[in-house]
Amino acid sequence: MKIVVIGTGYVGLVTGTCFAEVGIDVVCIDVDTKKIDNLKKGIMPIYEPGLEEMVLRNYEKGRLQFSTNLGENLQDADVAFIAVGTPPGEDGSADLKYVIGVAKEIGSHINGHIVVVTKSTVPVGTAERVKEAVKLELEKRNLQTEFDVASNPEFLKEGAAIEDFLKPDRIVVGVETKRAEDVMRKLYKPFLLNGHPIIFMDVPSAEMTKYAANAMLATKISFMNDIANLCEIMGADVNLVRKGIGSDPRIGNRFIYPGIGYGGSCFPKDVKALIRTANDNGHSMRILQAVEDVNEDQKSVLFNKVSAHFKGDLKGKNFAMWGLSFKPKTDDMREAPSLVIIEKLLHAGANVKAYDPVAMHEAKKDLGEQIEYCKDPNDALIDADALLIVTEWPEFRTPNFKVMGKLMKDKTVFDGRNIYDLEEMKEHGFAYYCIGVNTIKK
Fold first, then answer.
1. Which DSSP string do the residues of 357-421 spell out, in sequence order?
2. What's this model's pTM, rounded to 2 decimal places?
3. Catalytic positions, please?
4. CATH 3.40.50.720 domain range(s) in the chain
5. What is the CATH number of domain 2-201?
6. Distance CA 374, CA 383 (A)
7. Domain spanning 299-433: CATH superfamily
8. What is the pLDDT of residues 31-82, one digit of tens each?
9. Yes or no: is domain 211-297 CATH 3.90.1720.10?
10. Cβ proximity of 151 and 206 under 8 Å
11. Are 266 and 214 in contact (CB under 8 A)?
């Protein structure tokens, strides 16, 4: 089989590379000439553990190719994945101009049967719009050729995307015809040998499944953050509450860790888009609106703790920040809580020195030189009035507290991810603030 993947962003590049890894001929297409040239040289546009090695290996073996020419690569392709961006509009709806633009180009070039698959996260009804766009271009060419449109949402976690794709929890595919189902089943056969389930359904249901999954996970996060805030007020310990409810199999222990809000490219955008879709169809997603409201408020929780500790006077204070990306094992800064916290600190007249293992280059695109970027975690601590833990990178979990105390001006830590133990921090003489626990200062 041969497939083309249009879009070499996070979803497209991981999708194309993993298909190539199991022996399928793949061409990844992008309009960005520089990005394509860089990929041919082994320069990745994103950071994802294991991806660079896999791209290089499959490119060298000829199974994975990169091109800016969609037309010539469609001619002998069995499947075309649309994996371009769907940025949120000002009203929260998903902007489908790139998806529809690709659909039109596909219709302008195909001459035989192909399955056109929406891989981008798109609202219910998008596949139908894609089908109409392809048909319109075929009519302009006075060409009658059969094609199918399918929906195949991705469920990749940034930082574990390779593992998620090669060993999926499930594969969801929305189809309209038996022919499309047969093609997609053959395409995914290498991933089914170890019993991973493939679930076929109608196209609108597949489109909704992606949004419903992300909305449910976002709901668990915001629910736990809301509980954490109440725990602080009531004198309860959210870490113990989490263990108490997480042991219930009906609830489970995943996505119930309190923190400073979710970010990234999926949850914020998808929650907003689902709320907007519902509103456009006369339905109010009251729970999801609350999920979004809680999440936006949660991004300010750590700053509020900082402000309270310093009695509202942050002017001239020096803050160390460990972690910038919205989660570990990625350089993704989209909707990262760090951006909100830094903006508030700077507005209050404070100075910020930050360290992140991989995201500082991306952070500079948003923050420029407003903050100082440090070569290692300890460099950020020098003369700091306090340390803020914003992203729970593994290397932050077991620091040398004695060294930390000597480098800092004041031994104060604001832990937005609850990675340290309160009693241990007190033993080392730190004032320690975390999420969902009414901690006592040194």
1. SS-HHHHHHHHTTSSEE-SSHHHHHTT-SEEEE-S--GGGSS--HHHHHHHSSS-EEEETT--S-
2. 0.90
3. 266
4. 2-201, 299-433
5. 3.40.50.720
6. 13
7. NAD(P)-binding Rossmann-like Domain (3.40.50.720)
8. 999 999 999 999 999 999 999 999 999 999 999 999 999 999 999 999 999 9
9. no
10. yes
11. yes
